[in-house]
What we know:
The complex is a heterodimer.
Chain A: H1 5-14, E1 24-28, E2 31-35, H2 44-50, E3 61-65, H3 74-89, E4 95-97, H4 102-108, E5 117-120, E6 134-137, H5 140-149, E7 151-155, E8 159-165, H6 174-185, E9 194-198, H7 200-203, H8 207-215, E10 224-227, H9 231-239, E11 258-263, E12 270-272, E13 280-282, H10 283-286, E14 293-297, H11 298-301, H12 304-314, E15 324-328, H13 332-340, H14 343-350, E16 353-354, E17 375-378, E18 394-397, H15 400-409, H16 416-419
Parallel strand pairs in A: 2-3, 2-5, 3-4, 5-6, 8-9, 8-11, 9-10, 14-15, 14-17, 15-16, 17-18
Antiparallel strand pairs in A: 1-7, 12-13
Chain B: E1 3-10, H1 17-20, H2 30-35, H3 45-48, E2 54-56, H4 69-77, E3 81-84, H5 89-97, E4 102-104, E5 116-120, E6 125-128, E7 133-136, H6 142-149, H7 153-161
Parallel strand pairs in B: 1-2, 2-3, 3-4
Antiparallel strand pairs in B: 1-5, 5-6, 6-7
Amino acid sequence: MGMTMAEKIIARAAGKASVKPGEFVWAKVDTAMMDDLLGPRVVIADEIKRLGNKIWDPDKVVIISDHYSPAANITQAEILKFTRNWAKEYGIGKYYEGLGPCHQILAEKGFDIPGTLMVGTDSHTCTAGAFGCFGTGIGSTEMLGVLLSGEIWLRVPETMLFKWKGQLRPGVYAKDIILRTIKEIGQEGATYKVMEFAGEAIEALSLDERMAITNMVVEAGAKTGLIAPDEKVFDYLQAIGADKGTPVYSDEDAVYSEVYEFDASQLVPQVALPHEVDNVVDITEAAGEQIDQAYLGSCTGGRYSDLEEAAKILKGHKVHPDVRFLVSPASRSIYHKALRNGIIEILSDAGAMVLAPSCGACLGLHSGILAGGERAISSTNRNFVGRMGHKTAEIFLASPAAVAAAAITGKITDPREFLQEG
Amino acid sequence: MKTISGKALKYGDNINTDLISPPQYLEKSLEVIAQHAMEGIDEDFTRKVRPGDILVAGKNFGPGSSRETAPIALKMAGVGAIVAKFFARIFYRNAINIGLPVLECPDVDKIRDGDELTVNLQTGEIINKTTNEVYHATPLAAPVMDILNAGGLIGYLEKTYGQK
């Protein structure tokens, strides 16, 4: 019987020839990532001292301070200082701070290696699946176990296959693909499972866009989301001088628990209404809803192509006077490239506030918190109650282009209206 | 392992980690985080809960963040066990790892807020003393029981890595 990509990666990590869904295995971790929010400071720093005080392989550990960076208050500054010093004390050479959200930095630094197993203390570690790397989020105590042993127990998950045929039309993006997919299966639809994406629409996407899809699989409960690595992945890894790993692919006779087919050419821009990520409608159904803030950023929607698409919409326009338009590029290198290529200038000309690369606004930690009753459209991944600030605030999730369109009009707007002009 | 008895605190479906452990408190101490447990869905939660009470929820309890502060806050607030139709994956693992029992039971709709429950973790049997009903949760898998019996993953790890 054939295996899926996910099963092959787990089998290799577990040192077995094959595995089957439902089986419990102990798997060796290739990369263990911690962030500042839920990394060393939660449980780990205290407990590791009592448990031998030795990390199994400091070379396989990456620490990225992104949530509280740059610090908004003294408490956050102390957390960053603690994390930075802890990394030094335990010989973690791969410590990054101020570069941007961890999932983008993991990709840029070459840790999203095809065929490998990555665990991280952030739930969106599944983003690495865009490179054919089995990335999954774990808690701090579980990370403590990984730091000591280099291993983790896993229940081999079933894999669901999502085939996206055809090609996306202008104004429709990867973000719309994942929102539409989550709408179909619901926020619990992939609980304990893996979501694998395939089809010509997926193949045609840039890595930037593929990462927007795999980033959000956890919003349907998935353990990870995988896309078969192709030349785009290998070219990227080569360009940054990273390990190409040992890519694996699902067998022809692999068994999927469910198979869904969609036609990308029929897809229109989507929006997730407050307060659930599966509360998705065609954007035309929500058009006209007033917003106070438009946020373009995060590990979901702050990559170069996201800024570029937003700039196409905003060029020659001004941000609505009643709207704060915040832009946080997903990394310093994205910021730099966008600056060099005139993208930042277009956004700034339109009236954007360009912020540091950070997780801050996405989860209401700093740099753009919403007041009571305010409404935002955001290119991020969660619209839960209280996510971006006050619990009576409301969040609409949509593509970067839709965020840009709303920034101009002050209300939810189909981004295709702006693309037709040009 | 032991049985847990307490009154049911009943909630609905899809209670996510931002509701259980709101992000703005994450920079604070665990004690402060625990004082705000469930604040996003029920501001009175920490005043209502008594040690050993059983949080009963519908489907998909705990989706969202990998933050372990969600089960930690519930445990510190006094929750003795959680019974739901099913749990989000990371929350489930985190709860087990910090020693908070979580049971999957299809009959949670029959349980009302305030019912007196006794949960047997070994057998998965839930007795509703208020209605005299008995429900059957899925018994916990052996590796999961091992971790819970050790009081959580740290207790479990102590056996291997603890100072002799």
